[in-house]
Amino acid sequence: LVSLLLSWSLPISAQAAIESVPSNVAEGSNVLLLVHNVPPDLHAYNWYNGGDAKDPSLRILTYSIQNQTTSTGPAYSGRETVYNNGSLMIQNITQNDTGIYTLQIVKQSYEVETVTGQFRIYPFLPKPSITSNNSNPVEDQNSVALTCNPETQSTTYQWLRNGQSLPESGRLELSLDNRTLTIHNVTRNDKGPYECATWNPVSANRSDPFTLNISYGPDTPIILPSAPHYLVGATLSLSCQAASNPPAQYFWSISGRYLQSTQVLSVPNINMSDNGNYTCLAYNNATGRNRTTVKTVTVSESLTKPSIHGNNSTVTENEGPLNLTCLTNDTGISIQWIHNGQSLQLTERMALTQDNSTLTINPVRREDAGAYQCEVSNPVSHNRSDLFRLTVNYDPSAPGSSGLSGGAIAGIVIGVLAGVALIGGLVYFLYVRKTGGAGDQREHTEPKASASKHSQDACTANKINETTYSSLNFNGQQPKISTSASPSPTATETIYTEVKKE
Ligand SMILES: *[C@@H]1O[C@H](CO)[C@@H](O)[C@H](O)[C@H]1NC(C)=O
Ligand SMILES: *[C@@H]1O[C@H](CO)[C@@H](O)[C@H](O)[C@H]1NC(C)=O
Ligand SMILES: *[C@@H]1O[C@H](CO)[C@@H](O)[C@H](O)[C@H]1NC(C)=O
Ligand SMILES: *[C@@H]1O[C@H](CO)[C@@H](O)[C@H](O)[C@H]1NC(C)=O
Ligand SMILES: *[C@@H]1O[C@H](CO)[C@@H](O)[C@H](O)[C@H]1NC(C)=O
Ligand SMILES: *[C@@H]1O[C@H](CO)[C@@H](O)[C@H](O)[C@H]1NC(C)=O
Ligand SMILES: *[C@@H]1O[C@H](CO)[C@@H](O)[C@H](O)[C@H]1NC(C)=O
Ligand SMILES: *[C@@H]1O[C@H](CO)[C@@H](O)[C@H](O)[C@H]1NC(C)=O
Ligand SMILES: *[C@@H]1O[C@H](CO)[C@@H](O)[C@H](O)[C@H]1NC(C)=O
Ligand SMILES: *[C@@H]1O[C@H](CO)[C@@H](O)[C@H](O)[C@H]1NC(C)=O
Ligand SMILES: *[C@@H]1O[C@H](CO)[C@@H](O)[C@H](O)[C@H]1NC(C)=O
Ligand SMILES: *[C@@H]1O[C@H](CO)[C@@H](O)[C@H](O)[C@H]1NC(C)=O
After folding, report:
1. Pick from 349, 325, 320, 329: which is nearest to 337 by CA?
2. Which of 14, 355, 389, 411 would you label with 500, given CA atoms 20 to 30 Å apart?
């Protein structure tokens, strides 16, 4: 039953209809009003420009099926063509072609079937252009309204900034139709470029980029070089830079006295009296704002060669203090010490005075020997003293710098002293027991044969003697015969032993 009903309903649904191809028609182009489901046994087609097929003044044309002829009506414009399937083509569409079109289908039975069709006409959009209500807005002061022209109906407007859609900002506001963009309190970053894009169903277009000329600044100027130091006789050259649109005008002054109105201040052959605070004022004649920066210029004389005075140039290792003083008559300088051509590495045995002028080494070690120089410098000049050669006499068999602290050295010395005292006591005790207390006994551990003299003066006079002596006196009670080294027997016997400082 259902399929029977469906088969019955089919012919009923096959009604004539008009399709507009395309449905959105661009001005100047063609449109085809295509007729679907044309019934058989036709006599003629009548096309009307309007919704009323009874008004003869609206008739465009009539097409006779039998004669295959077209007769035009009052509404014929010369741009219409009908085909034998009933379809109507209209060329070179204008805005005046807008409206409803009616087709009257006349059958051979003179029955009449009427269908209507419609299409929308859109203009081809011209290239839009952007206008601004303020050609020279001032930063943080003005708002600017940009408008996309011309205004056309059924057109969508969109704004682009720097090639991208507008950022979220409370300072940006669009009109209801999006045709006008208002930028509140412009900043220098709002300059764009801006573009306006337009489109409708048949076309799209985009404006040329539009850049805002926003006046801003000047910002606080920067003076270069940042630390201006000059040698007497040089040419002072200071450059002032301030972000500003239009470019700032610059004015230089020193202590309120006008100098130049150039971006770069140039003063040749300066001397000490040109020391001072230089002011750069940057002025923007569009914003009416100005800003200043002050820079202190230091003019220095070239430095004379310093000299080193030392309280001693030949010292014995472990003695001190050795004082080296850098002598100079220049002021406003810093002093550095150089040892064997390299910057002096301070150790805990060394001390510098506050101004680095005096170097104290205490005690002196063998590695301190060598050539010393002091260098005086100011920001524009430096000079080095002649070499001061320090000779350190030491015992080459004695260990060099152990790197131990004074406390550790003291501990070791005390420990060795105690150990030697113990051994010495033991040896003496055994010896006395064995020999029945022989006479004067000496023990030398000095490594150098030439150092075997026991005279303290002789030892210190020797260049390579670096040992120090500690003597332990043991007073024996036995009145024994002394050795040949001892000219006369004495009640007191002395044993010498040597302690090396490490
Ligand atoms: C067709 O042509 C005949 C004679 O040529 C004419 O009488 C008749 O009116 C025409 N029909 C139409 C619909 O124009
Ligand atoms: C279309 O119409 C315009 C004016 O309405 C005319 O200037 C133009 O020549 C026409 N184009 C064609 C192809 O007919
Ligand atoms: C469109 O219609 C108006 C009035 O109806 C007429 O003045 C104008 O000339 C027409 N334009 C064209 C291109 O036909
Ligand atoms: C205006 O633009 C916004 C996005 O920028 C869009 O959401 C809105 O629909 C547009 N309005 C009109 C009228 O085009
Ligand atoms: C613009 O700046 C003024 C003062 O600087 C301020 O009162 C105002 O709220 C600002 N407007 C916007 C939209 O930010
Ligand atoms: C320069 O300015 C500094 C700091 O403002 C001030 O201490 C100094 O006295 C000034 N020098 C001159 C020569 O005015
Ligand atoms: C403002 O300054 C600019 C750049 O320094 C200059 O070109 C312009 O002539 C000045 N305008 C006026 C009115 O002084
Ligand atoms: C700089 O601006 C201040 C106010 O901001 C004004 O008093 C002064 O006269 C201006 N100076 C110059 C040289 O324009
Ligand atoms: C220099 O040092 C040596 C050994 O350290 C010492 O004998 C001499 O007296 C010192 N000379 C001066 C001038 O200090
Ligand atoms: C060496 O310098 C120290 C400290 O700087 C000082 O106390 C000492 O008197 C100076 N000795 C000599 C001999 O100049
Ligand atoms: C410092 O000046 C005095 C006297 O003017 C001079 O004798 C001495 O050599 C100068 N010293 C140096 C290091 O230039
Ligand atoms: C002292 O010398 C050290 C490097 O040895 C240097 O860093 C410092 O600036 C100098 N101080 C003075 C006042 O010259």
Report:
1. 325
2. 389
Report the nearest-CA residue for atom 1 of ligand 4: 178
Its pTM stands at 0.59
Q: Which residues sit with their C-beta closer than 6 Å to ligand 3? A: 94, 96
Expressed in angstroms and rounded, the spacing between residue 376 Cα and the centre of ligand 12 is: 10
Q: What is the pLDDT of residues 463-481, one digit of tens each?
A: 344 444 444 444 444 444 4
For domain 227-300, give the CATH number.
2.60.40.10
Which residue's structure tokens are 């007497």? 232
**198 strand-pairing partners:** 157, 205
- Domain 129-206 -> CATH class: mainly beta
Buried b vs exposed e over 352-374: b needs ≥16 C-beta within 10 Å? eeeebbbbbbebbbbebbeebbb
With the most atoms of ligand 2 within 8 angstroms of its CB, the residue from 30, 90, 92 to mutate is 92
Q: What pLDDT, in 10s, does the model give residues 239-297?
A: 999 999 999 999 999 988 898 899 999 889 988 888 889 999 999 999 999 999 999 88
Is 307-393 a CATH 2.60.40.10 domain? Answer: yes
Question: Rounded to 5 degrees, what are φ and ψ at 132?
Answer: -120, 145
Fold for the domain defined by 2-122: Immunoglobulin-like (2.60.40)
- What residues does each domain of the chain span? 2-122, 129-206, 227-300, 307-393, 406-501
In whole angstroms, what separates CA 267 from the centre of its chain?
33
Whether the domain at 2-122 and the domain at 227-300 fall into the same CATH topology: yes
- Cα 23 versus chain centre, distance: 57
